[in-house]
Amino acid sequence: MTKLSAIRPLRPASRMNVWAVISKTFLHAFLICLGIVVIYPLIWMALNGFKNNAQIFGNPFALPIGWSWANYVQAWNQGVRDYVSVSLLVTVASGLCTVLVSAWTAFGLTRTKMPAKPLVVGFVLGGLMLSPTVAVIPLVRMMQALGLYNTYWALIILYTAFRVPFSTFLIRAYMLDLSRDLDEAAVMDGASEGQIFWRITLPLCRPIVVSCVILHVLFAWNEYLFAMIFSSGVGAQTLPVGLTSIMATHGTNYAEVFAAMTISALPIVIVFFAAQRYFIRGLSDGIGK
Amino acid sequence: MADLSLKQVRKSFGNMTILQGIDLEIGSGEFIVFVGPSGCGKSTLLRLIAGLEEITEGTISIAGDVVNHVPPSKRGIAMVFQSYALYPHMTVYDNMAFGMKIARESKAEIDRRVRQAAEILQLEKYLDRLPKALSGGQRQRVAIGRAIVRNPQVFLFDEPLSNLDAALRVATRMEIAKLKDAMPDTTMIYVTHDQVEAMTLADRIVVLKDGRIEQVGTPMELYKKPCNLFVAQFIGSPAMNILPASIERAGAPTSVKLAGGMTAQLPLKTPETATGATVNLGVRPEDLRIAGNGEDVLLQGRLNYIEQLGEVQLAYLDIETDQPLIAKLPGGLEIQRGAELRLTANPEDVYLFDESGRSFAARESAASA
User: Does B78 touch chain A if contact means CB atoms closer than 8 Å?
Assistant: First the structure.
């Protein structure tokens, strides 16, 4: 009797353990499949950069016969270098501007007393609703009038303008959760508003700022519509537009095109992996609450 | 050396008035404690003194200078927050040095003062740590250290111990008392809702209710001479027993008839016109004792419940009033639930409050003054 009563409560637990192991196995299998679906095309693209056209069409899923960097070097020299430079400049400059403007705006919206604050918040966040496509024609006229058409300045300004509402939305949500006591302690210590922002609030917002930077880099690096319209001239083309012209010019040399695409994707992958810890933390802290 | 003066200080948020005309003089080097129930305005009053809130009316003076529009950092005040408010991304050293860095003090001076404060608070080992690597008590010490390095004239504490566990609270309370001894010229203002903190630390206690000062006095003054029902019940644990009664014969002494029919002679002077007036009789649980043979019985009731605390026991008696009567009796006393207890108290330990809640003793001393 004693033995039976001792065993009985164990049965459901062991059954639960089996189900836990099974569900865990399925979850892992699902995640591995998902990982393969995401990563395989990237690897396939990078590997095809080491092949020639015959190998690509003859046996597209095989490993390259030789590991020659020729296609990569050729792609780099035939314009990718310039496209990467412009993309880097536009992405870094617009990312910096977006984060600074958004963080200052969020600081103002969360930390200062102002009349009709909900209206101002609504106005700033209302920018999220503005479709870039709808705004293209007025923007072209505006950039032409300002003499910025066909320069990377146009892209820097536009990327900043169109990303500020979303970044402000994220940073504001994060700042709302920061303790006001810290601001007040800094006030007691004699810090000005600017010092509170730069030395207390902004460092504490690092996870969400990094998230915003990554999201901005993803956007600015891959953006095509504005890049095509506002920087189609030589010397101002970003990677997406440049890759299209490479495909048009060297359309028959697929290996070189694959190499160019790999070079263009590489920085994003590196940035994401380097900062993914902050990215996930920032989004879960900011949006989740 | 800084005395602090508050004259007719009012604070409103929109239509809601939080503080309604606070008048208070705080001497240099005094340890003042603000106590009161939640929402009474004690933290708001502290924030007004700190300069974190603008006052609506009145004046606040520190060392004779009106500081109504002086920014917090220029008032010579340091504040310790309930949440510690340590900068999480800075080390203990940087937290303590932040204010002086902002003030552009020399590195050598910053280092000297931070290390001096760290030595006082035994924080030398933790100077390179981030706040998240510290215990609650250590964080509170860092918050105090951050205030010390600024060498303030006035120290403000906003419920600094409320996030600590009971044992740590006692230890930190003693550290604050030692800190006060080490800084005799520094005025300290401390907000708490814990009356043990108030009684043990304060030179004077300010009792607040609904944005008004109810009474200001030394801990023993408040305990022995509460000016009204609120103070009488707020100071002391368990709270003072309040029993409905009527004055049978006014004068000195005063004869009072309790709702249960018993009468008591109190060595109190009441005006002749008070005869027949409805009053409240107050007696502290610790002043009640079992009546001996031949002693006058003040209160009599059936024992409903006992809380044994070891050294003492709290006896809850049914005396046919809304609230049970509580008596703090010696822990070793053998009493049984359901027993009829006859209690008495020294007449001078019995308080009498008029219908508005004001103490007759306070009325008498006000009249004689």
Answer: yes
Among chain A residues, CA nearest to B96: A189
Share of chain A above pLDDT 90, in %: 42
- Best of A183, A189, A193 to disrupt the B interface (most B CBs within 10 Å) is A189
Chain segment A259-268, per-residue pLDDT in tens? 988 998 888 8
> What is the set of domains in chain B, with CATH numbers?
4-232 (3.40.50.300), 234-368 (2.40.50.140)
Q: Which of A188, A199, A204 sits opposite B79 (nearest CB)?
A: A188
Q: What is the pLDDT of residues A211-252, one digit of tens each?
A: 899 889 989 998 989 998 988 777 778 888 888 888 777 667
Q: Is B218 exposed, middle or buried (0-12, 13-18, 19+ CB in 10 A)?
A: middle
The residues facing B206 across adjacent strands are: B34, B216
B204-209 vs B31-35, strand pairing mode: parallel
- Please give the model's pTM, rounded to 2 decimal places: 0.79
The C-alpha atoms of residue A6 and residue A3 are separated, in whole angstroms, by 5
- ipTM of the complex model: 0.83
| B3 neighbors B204 (Cβ within 8 angstroms) | no
Q: Which CATH class is domain A79-286?
A: mainly alpha
CB burial of residue B20 (10 Å; 0-12, 13-18, 19+): middle
Give the count of Cβ contacts less than 8 A between chain A and B: 54
What separation in angstroms does the CA of A191 have from each of A100, A163, A180, B72, B103? 20, 30, 14, 10, 8
